[in-house]
Every structure is written in structure tokens, then in C-alpha cells.
């Protein structure tokens, strides 16, 4: 299974995938790791692991549509079976989704459909929920919408900060992500 991974941030979830591939416990071929901006920790981690990397820098394009076209073309050039949004913080348009229909996977640090968006952990904490968690789902053109594949619950503790809660969520997020990728690698990418 060939995958392209898209990142915007530090890439700790990506690192879990890189480590599992290096350890031989996950049978996927990481065709490339790409970012929407220069200087991400995720691209650095990929380069350190010897992966092909690319940047389709959002700021280099006149508008979102042009950037989307460039991103879709670059991702398509690797002919992936699956595209993984791993902390990729840009919404892609319907053309991108159509190009990778049923092959664009996202993870989110909350129990969707609750707390979508860029601040899922902060919003859950601010609301005062006692249980939150993470979701692995097919991405569509909405913000953290699309069919849910797997979820895990994480208890909110007294005194939790956004950082402490997010770290515990990420432990579960990485576990679910690896479990999902391993199932797809073994059985093929299912239809959403
Ligand atoms: C993950 O919790 C992801 O769901 C969210 O941002 C985090 C990515 O962290 N959108 P990292 O870049 O993998 O460290």
C-alpha cells in the first residue's frame, strides 16, 4: 500500500508511522511526505527517515484553488493508494477530495462530530466534557466531517491543560491510526 502523508506541524503521529514501518510492524510504502509550508517538524522527521519530501507552500499561490490544484497534482504524481492527513491543518477543496475519493484519511483529536476544527482539544476542555478522545475518519470537503472509521475515548482529568490532555489523546490517536493502516495494508483500502 503506497501512502502519501500530509503534515503541517511537528509530526509526532507521522513519527509513529515511520517507526512502525522501520520496525517492520507496518507494511506500507511511504511514497512521500508533504507539507503546506516550509520548516515543519513533520517534513524534517520524514527526511531524517530517508523519505521523499515535498512542500506545496500555500503562500506561493495566488489563491486557494490554485494551491489546491498544485497540491492535488503533486500528490497524484506519487500514485498513492491512500493519502493520510496527519496534522495537516488546511482544508482541501472538493476537486482534491474527488481526485482522492475514498482514499483521503484524517485523524482528529476529539470524538467527532463533537468539537471539529483546529482546536478540538481546547474546545472540549472549555466545554467541560468529562470524556473526549480521537477519531480516524475519511475526509471530505467539510471540516472534520466524513465517515468515521474508528474512535477511542480519553477521560478528562481534573487539572488537565490543553497540552496534557492532547498528549494523552495522541497516544490513543497513534494507536488507532496504526491499527487502521495495518488493517488496510492487510485487507486493502475499503470503500468508505
Ligand atoms: C493531532 O492530534 C491531529 O489530530 C491534530 O494535530 C495533531 C498533530 O500532531 N490535527 P503532530 O503534528 O502529529 O505532532
Structure description:
Keywords: Purine biosynthesis, Transferase. The active site is at residue 108. The chain is of the alpha/beta class and 192 residues long. It has a single domain, classed as 3-Layer(aba) Sandwich (Rossmann fold). The protein is built from six helices and seven strands. Strands 3-2-1-4-5-6-7 form a seven-stranded mixed beta sheet. α1 (12-23) runs parallel beside α6. The chain is globular and about 45 Å long. The mean pLDDT is 95. Bound molecules: 5-O-phosphono-beta-D-ribofuranosylamine (GRF). Residues 9-14, 42, 86-87, 107-109, 170, 173 line the site of 5-O-phosphono-beta-D-ribofuranosylamine (GRF).
In short:
The chain is about 40% helix and about 20% strand. With about 190 residues, the chain is of the alpha/beta class.
Task: Outline the low-pLDDT stretches.
Answer: none
Secondary-structure element pattern, one letter each: EHEHEHEHEHEEH
List the ions, cofactors and other small molecules found in this model. Answer: 5-O-phosphono-beta-D-ribofuranosylamine
Radius of gyration: 16 Å
Largest sheet: 7 strands, mixed
Amino acid at each position: 500500500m503506497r501512502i502519501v502523508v500530509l503534515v503541517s506541524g511537528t509530526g509526532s503521529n507521522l513519527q509513529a508511522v515511520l517507526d512502525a514501518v522501520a520496525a517492520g510492524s507496518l507494511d506500507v510504502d511511504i511514497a512521500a511526505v508533504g507539507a503546506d509550508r516550509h520548516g515543519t517538524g513533520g517534513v524534517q522527521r520524514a527526511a531524517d527517515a530517508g523519505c521523499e519530501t515535498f512542500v506545496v507552500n500555500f503562500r506561493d499561490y495566488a489563491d486557494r484553488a490554485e494551491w489546491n490544484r498544485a497540491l492535488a497534482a503533486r500528490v497524484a504524481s506519487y500514485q498513492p493508494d491512500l493519502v493520510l492527513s496527519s496534522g495537516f491543518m488546511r482544508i482541501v477543496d472538493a476537486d482534491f477530495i474527488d481526485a482522492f475519493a475514498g482514499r483521503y484519511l484524517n485523524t482528529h483529536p476529539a470524538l467527532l462530530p463533537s468539537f471539529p476544527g483546529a482546536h478540538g482539544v481546547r474546545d472540549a476542555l472549555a466545554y467541560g466534557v468529562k470524556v473526549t478522545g480521537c477519531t480516524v475518519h475519511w475526509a471530505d470537503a467539510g471540516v472534520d466531517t466524513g465517515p468515521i472509521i474508528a474512535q477511542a475515548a480519553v477521560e478528562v482529568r481534573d487539572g488537565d491543560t490543553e497540552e496534557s490532555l492532547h498528549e494523552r489523546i495522541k497516544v490513543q490517536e497513534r494507536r488507532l491510526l496504526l491499527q487502521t493502516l495495518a488493517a488496510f495494508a492487510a485487507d486493502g483500502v475499503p470503500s468508505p
